[in-house]
Structures are given as structure tokens and as C-alpha cells.
Design a protein that fits this description.
By secondary structure, the chain is mainly beta. It has one helix at residues 2-41, and strands at residues 52-59, 62-71, 80-88, 94-96, 100-101, 106-108, 113-118, 129-136, 142-147, 154-161, 164-174, 182-191, 196-198, 202-203, 208-210, 214-221, 231-238, 243-249, 256-262, 270-277, 285-294, 297-305, 311-313, 318-324, 334-341, 346-352. It has 4 domains: 1-44; 52-147, Immunoglobulins (Immunoglobulin-like, Sandwich); 154-249, Sandwich (Immunoglobulin-like), CATH 2.60.40; 256-352, Immunoglobulin-like, CATH 2.60.40.10. A hairpin with a 7-residue loop joins strand 19 (256-262) and strand 20.
Length: 354
């Protein structure tokens, strides 16, 4: 009986050894087949670690970050240490992502993958195609081309009126084609010298929801009395991490329009010109000088009607000035005329003499 038991035990052990040997031979054969396939294709197994980008996900509700999934393939010879993730935008600028979860550098085992949360605001590049670059230490990185989502508010207009220099109206719309509703949370102004101002008082108050297919006009409190005739960039921020911009010019204190330059052949020593002070000017226009532009030469002329300059022109009104200048030697000549105010604002028009 002992002999039979010993033989039975040896048979089981032999069977296990033969099974292991078969598995090893099968693995070697499979490797030779796969290696032979790659060799036939002219593909070489990499000597250094290499990674692949499996997927990138953008959350339209949060434009301040994105998720990227990176794989260290089975054919990679060693673990891969990811040292940097960056973005190349359409303006050829490189943006290194300084904040990720998990943090970089990060070692990725062979045949392992990891999803990284990258804190970088892609909302500033809506509708653009960007390149995501993954850099690996002592190895081969990866490049993934991504088209960002085309969503966005439209900052349609900023209206400054002469009757109120303490406020302006800001109209914002969310098109029907937009991918989501937006919550406006903040409005700022950037002046020509780079100074940024946060609008503290807005009606309706923020945050304010602007649904797709709707628009809202905000009344923003800002005293622009001393900032007339200059550019201002308005930035609208949303809860979802997007920012939208509009550059507008505040009205000049008195903006004039010069029209109806008339030369009458019956009187070659005078001409008439009409000047208007725009409705959106915030004060009277003090007309001080009328000049004729002739072959790059400015000739100051006198005004005989309605009276000598200076002349105060109320907001929204027009006046026709009769000016003395002998143009008998300049028949069939293109003549320019400028009218200047005491603040240095100039109106211009031109006409060909008869």
C-alpha cells in the first residue's frame, strides 16, 4: 500500500511539473510569435519607458481643469516617471501645468494607468485646438491633440450715456447654440494703463443666471467722469470658470461731427460748414478754431457768422458757420476743413470746390 501511495504522489507531482513546463513553453512560443510579428512589421520594442494618452475629459461646467488618463503600456521596458504635463495653444505658447492631482513627478508601473486632474483654465481657449504634451523622465512622452468645446456668452455692448457718468449698461447674451447656462459672478474693468477695477455694485446683482437663448442687461456702477474718450476692457466672469471680454471707448466730453461743407460760386470769399455736438456728449462743445487743409498746409480762417469764435455748441445741437477764405485760386480743388474744440477734439470733412 505504501508503494502505491508513493507512486500516486509522484504521478501528481509529475503532472504538475509537466503542466508548468507546458505553460512556460506556451509563453515562450507566444512571445516568439508576437516578436516575430513586430519584427516583420519593422517595429522595435522600445528600450526606454514610453507612455500613451488614453483619454482627456473636459467638464463644460468647470473650465478651470481637465482630466487626462495616461497608460504605461505592457511593452514598455520599465516603469515610467511622468515629470510634466503642458499645453500648447494655437498662439504657439506653452503653458506648463503646475498643479495636478496626483502630484508630479509620478511613477507609473508597467501596464498601469492613472488619471490626473490638471488645474489649468481651458475656458480662455474656447473653440481652439490645443496640444497636450506629457513628458517622461529618460523616456518617450506623448502628444494628444484636443479641440476645446465651443460654448460662450456674448458681451454684446457697453452703453455710456451723457446724462449719467456714474453708471453704464452692459448687455450679455447666451446664444441658442451655447452648450450650457452660465452664472455671471463678477465684472471687472481694465483701463488703458493696466489698472483693474472690480465693479462692486451691479443690478441685477450677481451671481445671475443667463440661460441659453436669453440675454440680460446689467446696470454697472462706475464713475467714468475723469475717464472720457478712452478705451476700457470689460471682463465678465462666470461660476463655470469662463471669462468673456469686450473693449469699448467711453464718450468724449464733447464729440463733434463736421458735415455739409458748401462752396458757393457766387461768393468766392466764403464757405459754410455745419458742426454738430453729438447727443451722447456730456458737455457743451467749445468751438475755438476752423482751419483749411490745402496740400498738407493748414490755414486758419475766421468765422463771420453766427459770430467770432469761440462758440459754445449745446449737446445735441448743430450750427452752420460762415467762414472767410478766398478760394478763387483753388477752383476744382479738394479742400479739407477741420473744426477744433478747446479740449482738443477735432472734426473733419472735405469737399471739391466748384
Amino acid at each position: 500500500m505504501k508503494v502505491a501511495k508513493n507512486v500516486n504522489a509522484i504521478s501528481r507531482l509529475l503532472f504538475i511539473l509537466m503542466l508548468l513546463l507546458a505553460l512556460i513553453i506556451g509563453s515562450i512560443f507566444s512571445y516568439l510569435v508576437v516578436a516575430g510579428y513586430y519584427l516583420n512589421l519593422g517595429i522595435e520594442v522600445p528600450e526606454n519607458p514610453t507612455v500613451s494618452v488614453i483619454d482627456i475629459k473636459l467638464d463644460i461646467q468647470n473650465a478651470e481643469s481637465f482630466n487626462i488618463t495616461i497608460l504605461n503600456p505592457t511593452y514598455s521596458p520599465t516603469d515610467a516617471t511622468i515629470k510634466e504635463i503642458s499645453v500648447i495653444t494655437e498662439d504657439d505658447k506653452a503653458h506648463s501645468i503646475s498643479s495636478t492631482e496626483p502630484e508630479l513627478p509620478y511613477t507609473l508601473d508597467v501596464a498601469d494607468q492613472e488619471t490626473f486632474l490638471c488645474n489649468w483654465n481651458w475656458g480662455d481657449y474656447l473653440g481652439e485646438t490645443v496640444d497636450i504634451i506629457v513628458l517622461v523622465e529618460d523616456g518617450s512622452g506623448a502628444v494628444y491633440q484636443l479641440e476645446t468645446i465651443s460654448v460662450g456668452l456674448e458681451v454684446e455692448s457697453a452703453t455710456f450715456t451723457s446724462t449719467d457718468t456714474k453708471h453704464f449698461n452692459l448687455t450679455i447674451s447666451n446664444p441658442e447654440a451655447s452648450a450650457l447656462d452660465f452664472n455671471v459672478t463678477k465684472v471687472t474693468l481694465t483701463l488703458e494703463d493696466g489698472t483693474e477695477t472690480n465693479i462692486q455694485e451691479i443690478k441685477p446683482s450677481v451671481p445671475e443666471l443667463i440661460s441659453t437663448g436669453t440675454s440680460t442687461t446689467f446696470v454697472c456702477t462706475w464713475d467714468w467722469t475723469d475717464y472720457r474718450g478712452m478705451n476700457v476692457t470689460i471682463t465678465v466672469y462666470t461660476l463655470q470658470g469662463y471669462a468673456f471680454y469686450l473693449t469699448e471707448s467711453t464718450p468724449k466730453a464733447a464729440q463733434i461731427l463736421v458735415t455739409d461743407l458748401e462752396f458757393d460760386s457766387s461768393t468766392l470769399t466764403h464757405f459754410d460748414i455745419t458742426v454738430k455736438n453729438y447727443e451722447y456728449s456730456i458737455e457743451e462743445a467749445n468751438l475755438t478754431t476752423v482751419e483749411v487743409l490745402l496740400e498738407n498746409e493748414f490755414i486758419e480762417v475766421s468765422v463771420v457768422s453766427p459770430g467770432e469764435l469761440p462758440y459754445l455748441l449745446p449737446i445735441g445741437e448743430s450750427v452752420t458757420l460762415t467762414c472767410y477764405w478766398d478760394w478763387s485760386d483753388y477752383r476744382e480743388t479738394t479742400v479739407g476743413v477741420t473744426v477744433e474744440t478747446s479740449e482738443g477734439f477735432v472734426g473733419y470733412t472735405y469737399q471739391t470746390t466748384p
